[in-house]
Design goal:
The relative contact order is 0.19. By secondary structure, the protein is an alpha+beta fold. The chain starts with a strand and ends with a helix. A five-stranded antiparallel β-sheet has the order 3-17-5-13-14, with no helix packed on it. Strands 1-8-7-11 form a four-stranded antiparallel β-sheet. Strands 9-10-6-12 form a four-stranded antiparallel β-sheet, with helices on one face. A hairpin with a 5-residue loop joins strand 9 (about 190-195) and strand 10. The chain contains 14 helices and 20 strands. Helix 3 (about 55-80) runs antiparallel to helix 7 (about 295-315).
């Protein structure tokens, strides 16, 4: 069973296949920041002993998992911080009058509130994915003759040829499961699964990972039988792979009464707002107003966002169950940062619990932000955020530090040298394809 891709499309295939994660503000760097990361990696590889890494899928998943958890918190912290010293709490915060319909973030930088426009948005419908559901077939039989088959898939102007084999005794369910694995492992922007109807028949359901429609296109993907060749044909028609249950469409909405559309439910407006559409308007819903809050409201919202991000990171660590993962070490290091600022944070209504999480007293937090100088009284929160950012930078750079690895050899003291091959071990690149 093989998945062959036309040679002239290999470059584009790798561009799309190896960027599965959505970018955050933490993924955008200045030249000097990238230079600093590079020097950190070089220094790390010079000073590190040589470890023995075992071929353990669960260990690899935990290494990637902690890196991604730290990266999520890192991205949130980067979204709170700016160049100026007090920007974490001087920055404006966006609001919407209906958070169940639209979420908004302000990205317009440091400018007077009078220069930041507000607007109304009415959502007609959301951007959707294309979903094909094939023909429902009996599970225990198959009418395809044994042999080697092929079929073509076109996704976003890229053509892919799939090949698979049907063996004597294979059932429809066997072949459908084989095709689902083949499509999922190919990383071409489609997700396949088996669905069952009331008659216990199964069909292949295939959904595009991307939302909306590319410019000038009427579908996200399509199936076709190849022309000629030595392979057997008939896969598309037999399994009904080309049967579209729901077509992809772009989001449609009104901005201050003017019709607009987007291929995604996540987009920017006027380079000042980042919007995330959650649901279409229902009967009785009014237009949603979007604007920015004053400084005190911004302080409260950003403090809550920081605490929620911190608590979410601690919760994510509990999900890693591999015996080689040093979850307690991660938790202790992160909660130690919170303990360092505990006394100052308690005065703001932020209390550290026994398990290291932070509880918020909304009343105390709001009262402090209203009655006190936010730059003075909320400085411990900014210091806490800065310390967390430094820890997340360390974890993202070296997630393998929290995986048990036997040492093979130590570097010769005074004669350390960079090892270019060890970088991927520390960054997790070998495990999840980031480069």
């Amino acid at each position: 069973m093989a998945n062959t891709i036309q040679s002239e499309q290999i470059y584009n295939h790798f561009l799309t296949a190896y960027a599965p994660k959505e970018a955050t503000r933490a993924d955008t760097h200045k030249k000097d920041e990238l230079r600093g990361i590079y020097h950190s990696i070089v220094r790390l590889s010079k000073e590190s002993p040589l470890y023995l890494l075992t071929n353990d899928a669960s260990m690899e998943a935990d290494a990637v998992g902690i890196k991604e958890s730290a990266r999520d918190l890192q991205g949130m912290l980067a979204g709170l911080d700016e160049d100026s010293e007090s920007a974490l709490f001087a920055k404006k915060s966006a609001y919407t009058t209906d958070d169940t319909m639209v979420q908004a973030a302000y990205i317009g930088g440091d400018r007077p509130i009078s220069e930041v426009p507000s607007f109304n948005i009415e959502i007609e419908y959301l951007a959707t994915q294309q979903r094909n559901v094939g023909t429902f077939l009996p599970q225990d039989t198959a009418d395809l003759q044994p042999g080697a088959y092929s079929f073509n898939v076109r996704v976003n102007d890229l053509n892919y040829e799939f090949q698979y084999s049907v063996r004597n005794g294979d059932t429809n369910q066997d072949i459908q499961e084989r095709l689902a694995r083949l499509i999922n492992k190919s990383n071409i922007g489609l997700t396949a699964e088996l669905v069952t109807n009331d008659s216990e028949q199964t069909a292949l359901a295939i959904t595009s990972n991307d939302f909306g429609l590319p410019v000038g296109k009427d579908s996200r993907f399509s199936f076709a039988e190849p022309l000629g060749g030595d392979m057997l044909h008939g896969t598309v028609g037999y399994f009904g792979l080309d049967r579209t249950e729901s077509a992809a469409r772009n989001a449609s909405f009104l901005l201050d009464g003017k019709e607009r559309s987007s291929v995604s439910n996540h987009f920017t407006v006027a380079s000042m707002y980042e919007l995330h559409l959650l649901r279409a308007a229902e009967e009785g819903d009014s237009a949603v107003s979007v604007g920015v809050k004053d400084d005190n409201d911004s302080v409260i919202d950003r403090t809550k966002e920081l605490v929620n991000g911190y608590n979410t990171f601690l919760d994510s660590i509990k999900s890693f169950q591999n015996k080689h993962f040093k979850g307690t070490k991660v938790t202790n290091e992160v909660t130690a940062i919170a303990k360092q600022y505990n006394s100052a944070l308690e005065g703001l209504g932020l209390k550290l619990t026994e398990d290291g999480h932070i509880d918020m007293d909304d009343g105390v937090l709001t009262q402090t932000a209203t009655d006190r100088d936010v730059r003075q009284y909320f400085k411990p929160v900014k210091d806490f955020a800065d310390a967390l950012q430094a820890k997340m930078d360390q974890i993202v750079l070296d997630p393998m530090h929290y995986i048990e690895r036997p040492v093979v050899a130590y570097k010769h003291p005074g004669h350390e040298f960079p090892n270019p091959y060890i970088t991927s071990e520390y960054s997790g690149m070998m495990f999840n394809g980031y480069c």
